[in-house]
Every structure is written in C-alpha cells, then in structure tokens.
Amino acid sequence: ITKIFNYNLPEVGEQYQVRKGHPVSQKYGIGAKWVPWGICKNAECKKVDARQAWDHYSVGPPYMMHLDDWRLMVNEWVEYSPECLENDPPPSILAEMYSFAMACAHHGLPHELVNTMLSDPDSIQSEPAWKEVPWDFRQQGFLNGNQAELNVHILHYCHGYWLGDERNTGHMINYGFNFHKGHLPKDILHNCERSLLVEPPTNKFAKDRDSTKENNHVWMLYQI
Fold this sequence. Notes:
Strand order of the largest sheet: 1-6-5
Number of helices: 7
Largest sheet: 3 strands, mixed
Order of helices and strands: EEHHEHHEEHEEEHH
C-alpha cells in the first residue's frame, strides 16, 4: 500500500529533474550489499564501489527515469535477477531491488536520491522527513494550507503500524491498534460490501501507547 500526494509539488532545481541519463529515485537502505558479490557483467558495473553504491544506487520505488533509460536497462534487470536471488534468498524480498541497482550501474545510470517518503516509524535517521511532519492535520487539513512547506510526498505502508505494549498484541480490545497491509481483504478497493477501516485514535492515550517517542505510529495510522 502506497499513498502518493500528487498535488502541485514545490518547484525543484535541475538537480532533481528527471532527464535522459539522470534518473531520480527514493533513497532506500539497501546499500552496497551487491558490490562484493562479484557478479557484474561489464566494466561500468564493476567500477562501482561501496560509497558510490550508497550515494547513487541505494534506491527503491518510486523509480523515476526517462523512458529511453528504462528501455536501456530492463533486459539487464531481468538478467541479474537470478544471481541476486541466489545471493540474497528468501525470506529476503530485496533481490529484484539489487538487480535493478546493478542494471542501472551496468549502463552508467547513477540516481539522484530524494528523501520525501515515509515508511518506517523507527527510521528517523534514514528517513529525515520524519523530523518535520505536520501535526495539525485534524484542525487544518493535511496540507495545512501551505503546500510548499510539506516535505512528505509518499507514504509507503510496508511495515506494521501499531499501538500497545507490543506489536503482536496491539489490538482495540486491549486499548491498542494494529494495522498491516496483509490484514486487509484483497478486494477491499472494489468490493463495496467491505466495511470501512476503523479510524485510529489520535488523543493523548493513543500517543502514550506508541512505541516511538515522536508518536510516528499514530501519525502513519491516521494518514491511512
């Protein structure tokens, strides 16, 4: 589940403009794990070191690239995938992200990294947008009337979000709350017979039940 705020975004400089040979993508923490695997198939990929991998290839959805660049790298994305899966087998689910990074490196397509996504309430350091999330959304609306000041454009619900003593026991029956995308019925978006989601609390008691001192679980739960 990903929530994208696709209203008029603040203007960005040329550094963050997508153009041929200059992709722009969200920063993820996949890092340089693939570099020492030694499975690069050309000199362009082999010359990427750990620092470059972190600075330009540690990316994930949304990937934003010129159509010609997608066409250029897509075959290598497929080609690298089996070996990436061998080196990063299940239960990991990141193999195709590593193969994507390697395919881009193969064709000399370093990404400009952006940090406008939120996903993990416990990752304040790797997701700096947490430091400036607006809290007056209930009174003013989410945008607070000033789009230029909003530094969050994507909410990626890839974790569990909960209130309570611990994640596995957080439930309304014991004054908690628990949400994970896997809890939702698969047809919730097109079956109108499905019940609406219960609106989570945002009061002081809810914040006291949040495991993060910044109340990031409360914030993410409310935005659903």
